[in-house]
Amino acid sequence: MDTDTGYIAAGELLKALAAPLRIGIVTELAAGPRCVHELVDALGAPQPLISQHLRVLRGANVVHGARRGREIAYSLTDDHIARIVADAVSHATEGSSHPARVGS
């Protein structure tokens, strides 16, 4: 993969992650597979909204589903995704507790 292709793919990944609820879903899935109803309970969002965001994440190859009886358990496609999101959340929360420096 050349550099431009890598940048484009990274941009698409970041676009897929660019919604707070999707970040929450990825954070939940970092702990292990979850069914939609478990994500609804954990995140307090309505089921149709969780399902809509899962569709976006599936389309971006961030999550995949595996049948678990009558349900589908969603999990992350790889651990890199969880680290990207955890680092972004950590960075964002660190930045909010420190005043911005002029010239940095």
Automatic annotation (TrEMBL):
Name listed for the protein in its UniProt record: HTH arsR-type domain-containing protein
NCBIfam families, alphabetized: HTH_metalloreg
GO molecular function, one term: DNA binding
Domain spans labelled HTH arsR-type: 1-96
SMART domains (UniProt xref): HTH_ARSR (SM00418)
Pfam families: HTH_5
UniProt keyword annotations, A-Z: DNA-binding, Transcription, Transcription regulation
UniProt cross-references to SUPFAM superfamilies, sorted A to Z: Winged helix' DNA-binding domain (SSF46785)
PANTHER family the record matches: ARSENICAL RESISTANCE OPERON REPRESSOR ARSR-RELATED, HTH-TYPE TRANSCRIPTIONAL REPRESSOR CZRA
Keyword Transcription regulation: yes
